[in-house]
Amino acid sequence: YFIEPNQLEEHQAIITGDDARHITKVMRGKPGDKLIVSDGVSREALTEISEIEASQVTVSILEWLPMDHEPKVSVTIAQSLPKGDKMELVIQKCTEIGAAVFVPFVSERTIVQYDAKKEGKRLERWRKIAKEAAEQSHRNKVPEITESKSWKELLASFEDYDLVCYCYEKEQGLQLRDVVKPFADKLKADPSIDPCVLVIVGPEGGFTTGESEAAEAAGAKSVGLGKRILRAETAGMLALTCILYETEE
Ligand code: SAM
Questions:
Q1: Of 80, 134, 185, 215, which sits most exposed with the smallest number of CB within 10 A?
Q2: 149-188: b or e for each residue (b if 16 or more CB lie within 10 Å)?
Q3: CA of 22 to the centre of ligand 1 (A)
Q4: pLDDT, tens digit, for every residue of 164-183?
Q5: If you take atom 9 of ligand 1, which residue's CA is the nearest one?
């Protein structure tokens, strides 16, 4: 369970809210049961339930655990907002695989239009999905989900990354593996680098030629993901998997 840093003390931790309800109602937790709590930043512990109240569970720290389940490469998935609940699928699956950040964005052919009124609720739901997926796959950190960006804002953020991969199904030349392999070799040669990679995935209708040119001009590598056209929600999962496959120890 991920809890607020100030609720994780030296000898005990207090779990409240939805997590406490989950432990009592769904897991039917009782004193003596073991569970792992993390502040999602720097501390994680194996604990034992010592006290259960209606809306609060107190656990005693048994052992501090190493936080070594995060990938070396921090991968940000920038996803042009897909239709329906597809973004939820992207967040859930890419969190399990190991994404660090999600950036929803609006491009020319994005079908779902940005609605500031709905943004707060939607973000809250996405963050809950990321937290639950991170807990179930035993991540040490819950991926961050930013507010939706415009295409321009996304382009302006390229300089924050060591590598920007722009997934373009019309790309005839460069494939993702051609870019990731040398990147992984560079990391092996210099383990002191703390690498950040941005993966950009387009909407159901793909990117326009103008967007493609702008991405390359801003420093992105336009890459293909094989000879098949993937659904908008599948492309990020595949790209993330390939990057982590090449760079994980
Ligand atoms: N029409 C399908 C749909 O409704 O989901 C396919 C959409 S595809 C155009 C959506 C995005 O996935 C593209 O903009 C691109 O970023 C990525 N993509 C899909 N297949 C790809 C491939 N073979 N190589 C590179 N990127 C790909």
A1: 185
A2: bebeebbebbeebebbbbbbeebeeebbbebbeebbeebe
A3: 38
A4: 999 999 988 999 999 999 99
A5: 206
